[in-house]
Task: structure prediction
Amino acid sequence: MSPGAAFRELRIRGLGRRFGNGFTALDGLDLDIGGGEFIALLGPSGCGKSTALNLLAGLLAPTRGSIWIDEQRVDTLPPEKRNFGMVFQNYALFPHLTVAENVAFGLRMRKVGKAERAERVRKALELVRLTEQAGKHPGQLSGGQQQRVAIARAIVVRPRLVLMDEPLSNLDAKLRLDMRTEIRLLHQELSLTTVYVTHDQAEALSLADRLVVMRAGVVQQIGRPSEVYERPANAFVAAFVGYRNALPGRLIGADVEIEGLGRIRHGDGDLPAEGEAVAMIRPDDLVIGGPEAGRPISLTVRVCEYQGRSFAVEGRAPDGTVLHAASLEPLAPGDHVSAHIRPERIRVFPRADQPNRADPAPAESMARS
Amino acid sequence: MSAAVAPERAAGSGRRARAGTPGISPVLWLVVPGVLFMLLFFVYPLCYGVGLSFQGEGGPFSAYADFFADRFVSDHGSRESILVTLRLALAASLINVGAALPIAYRMRGPIRGKRIITATVLIPMTLGTVFVASAMNNVLGPAGWINKALLAVGLADEPVALTGNFTGVLLSLVISGFPFSFLLMLGYASGVDPSLEQAAAVLGAGPRARFRLIALPLLLPGLTITFCLSFVLAFGVFPSATLVGNDAGPTRVLSKIAYTEYANAQYATASATAVIMAVVQLAVLGLVLALRSRLYRGSTAGGKG
Result:
């Protein structure tokens, strides 16, 4: 438990939500969150991450499971009794109240005295650098400013838990990076336990202490950013954190026999059973024009995209397999080049785990009935 | 810079020049039929009527003087009918809006049976005033079911007067006017971003505080508009005043006065009555809208969508 945290441990046990039409948005979430921790729920739309957040906030009632903060059961409380803070995707600022009144709202509900209220609002606005805007209405602010008001409004009440629902998804690219850093800074300063929902792996990896990767209502992996990034638990997680090449093959001992590419010794420690497998490789580990280490694969370039320091190349192997690689030099479509795989970076998973792109992704229901 | 641009503009067709001028485009022709219609069927009759009201037998203002001195054909208090009409219309629109607000607020989200409830609420709108009035006489009249039941049970010694008076007309106005108010309020209530109340809830606001501090302030502008429309609708109605009221006395509304004068070929006084109706309505609307202008009237969404 870090010094600023309001509790030792938040425990989520078998939390699930099934909707009236039989659709299970969240299927048994188990998660322990330490006081002061920053957790990111990561997954594609429809994976149940927003449902999980709404269940935590109390905006949606679970159909099974429970939530505990230390010895207190929380899931049976209405949202107004939980003492959480929430930052909504669309900010949800009260349009008829000024910035200061928006931030003061939670304090008013907690019957904080006028003088203390003014002081805490002032400090919170200072923290998000909006002192000048205190008297304005939300409609007069830019998107980034509105977002900062939403954050100030959520943290000024010193909530036990801060919930953030894709807070950066409505901002432009530069602002998103700035706000990301700001959110991280705020967390370092205040140590507020935070659960952050996003579909952006870069956001999740850079912000969170731990990631929860979800798919179709089921947790796929829980781990530190480096664990998830380097040792994804299955092919779905791997595909989600940037392993763009998924090559079907067979495991034979310590080698993987990839159709059309031949046998490659792979570096995966946790070997699945021998048999049908899928080898997953990041484009960055399939390098054209780098040091000639590892095994060469010849490629015919189809597309070469400029990406600043390097180039993203899509090419075809001789057997027609489409591969994503990285190049240090610009290439032209039709060029014949050879790429080098770094075998120790290949991840091999049983074939059944292969990511299925035709996965149904039903719209996440945020509706509160 | 501007010198370089000027020759190009001069050389270019008028199209480019037109593009910079706001408000003039061929699309403007589309409003012509509407404007003609308004002039012919609204502005002209209005001016004609106002003009007529100044052509009383005893000089330009004699029709108005007669109105306020109760000197009309079937003289039974034209001056007092302003208050009668105001009382009815204000009471009816207050009840309509007051009832529509909580129901519409409750039904703002997706709830079970919304269509059936909405359809049920809307049925009275499809029934004519006369139909409603005769139904009311059957149910609420001195020999209606309700009074029979009250007498039978012993709750009343003699029939309770629910029709033939102020109450009857008020009920009729509520029955036929409520659906309008409800539909309007449902539109306004559905337009308030549900995440605002969710945000308020997470911040510690219970259901009452959420309604009072978030929903109500955001609904008030819509509420005043609903009130105004409901008021205008109720103000001009007179079939119910005759059918379920008592238009010789307590429910003698302004439109009934105007109609009586007109039926007796007293066109100046009929027009004067109509003008007085308009002035009274405008005064009430002006007052309500002036109050409304002091409210927050911006977006009811919480930020970017």
In short: The longest helix of chain A spans residues 173-190. Residues 243-353 of chain A form a domain with the OB fold (Dihydrolipoamide Acetyltransferase, E2P) fold (CATH 2.40.50.140).
